[in-house]
Design goal:
single chain, about 220 residues, alpha+beta, Ribosomal Protein L9, domain 1, Ribosomal Protein L9, domain 2, 4-stranded mixed β-sheet, 3-stranded antiparallel β-sheet, 9 strands, about 35% helix
Length: about 220
């Protein structure tokens, strides 16, 4: 479907551009959100007649968005959620959750301005884009953790999940490693072979066996 853009649309074009888009994208997003008009002859005339006003209104919204961006850009919000031992959330963090967290810090944004391709489903520090205007975007950080203490570690740049899977112990004792020369990797001591006990024949039984052998030879 051919449409006339009423504002800048990322990866599509600027105000007044006539572009060809998929029917579903036009019907479900561009047209109902008043970001475009069907590119028929009647709408083309209407657009050209109102072009100056449309561009002026857009410029005014852009200025307001630039002012608002100063109270949003670079903010970090903290969300505490339950998660598994591998960091997978029991649920997810949605655009609405981020809006509410920002409002808690005095930053007013709408759900539609949160650019979230898919819900956040793992703990960690996530960067999320906020489009305050088609030409004004900022970034906020969403710190998702299982506890305030874990969130603090992540804020310091510590990968909490990586620290949970530290390397297994080598089996070297502290005393053994301490005695090694600097720069030399000690070899793990070899296990001692179990002692094999050899049963000794009692002296009396040995003597009797020898005497019996002698009598047999004389006979």
């Amino acid at each position: 479907m051919e449409v006339i853009l009423l504002e800048r649309v990322e990866k599509l074009g600027q105000i007044g551009d006539i572009v060809n888009v998929k029917n579903g994208f036009a019907r479900n997003y561009l047209l109902p959100n008043k970001k475009a008009l069907r590119a028929n002859e009647a709408n083309k005339k209407v657009f050209e007649a109102n072009r100056a006003k449309i561009e002026a209104d857009n410029a005014g919204r852009k200025v307001e968005a630039e002012k608002a961006s100063k109270g949003v850009d670079g903010k970090t919000v903290q969300l505490i959620r339950q998660a598994s031992n591998v960091g997978a959330l029991y649920g997810s963090v949605s655009a609405r959750d981020i809006v509410e967290a920002l409002e808690g810090q005095g930053a007013k944004v709408s759900k539609s301005q949160i650019v979230l391709d898919r819900p956040i489903k793992a703990i960690g520090l996530h960067e999320v884009k906020v489009a305050l205007h088609p030409e004004v975007s900022v970034t906020v950080k969403v710190n998702v953790a299982r506890s305030p203490e874990e969130a603090e570690l992540q804020a310091q740049g510590i990968d909490v999940m990586a620290s949970m899977f530290e390397r297994e112990p080598t089996g070297f004792t502290e005393e053994f490693v301490a005695g090694a020369e600097p720069g030399v990797v000690p070899e793990e001591p070899a296990a001692e072979a179990p002692a094999v006990e050899v049963a000794e024949e009692p002296a009396a039984e040995a003597a009797e066996a020898a005497e019996g052998k002698g009598e047999g030879e004389e006979a």
